[in-house]
Design brief:
Structural class: mainly alpha
Number of domains: 2
Number of helices: 4
Number of strands: 0
Low-confidence stretches: none
Largest sheet: none
């Protein structure tokens, strides 16, 4: 599929891939996805009352307690 798109636009597959990645990052940049939530929790580790069990229970923090059971 990438080759077809690249040929139709007269560009390389690498260029199509770069454009797709750039578009995906731009689309998800403003969204509060799970990775952004995890990063926010990680940044909170600098705070004295941050969760000490984050590395063991990260699924609980991302998805809630039910998801890890």
């Amino acid at each position: 599929m990438l080759e077809i798109i690249a040929n139709s636009k007269n560009v390389s597959v690498a260029q199509i891939t770069r454009i797709a990645i750039k578009d995906y990052v731009a689309k998800t940049r403003g969204e509060k996805d799970l990775f952004a939530k995890l990063a926010a929790i990680g940044r909170s580790k600098k705070v004295a009352n941050a969760p000490r069990d984050l590395s063991e229970n990260y699924k609980d923090y991302l998805y809630g307690k039910i998801a890890s059971k």
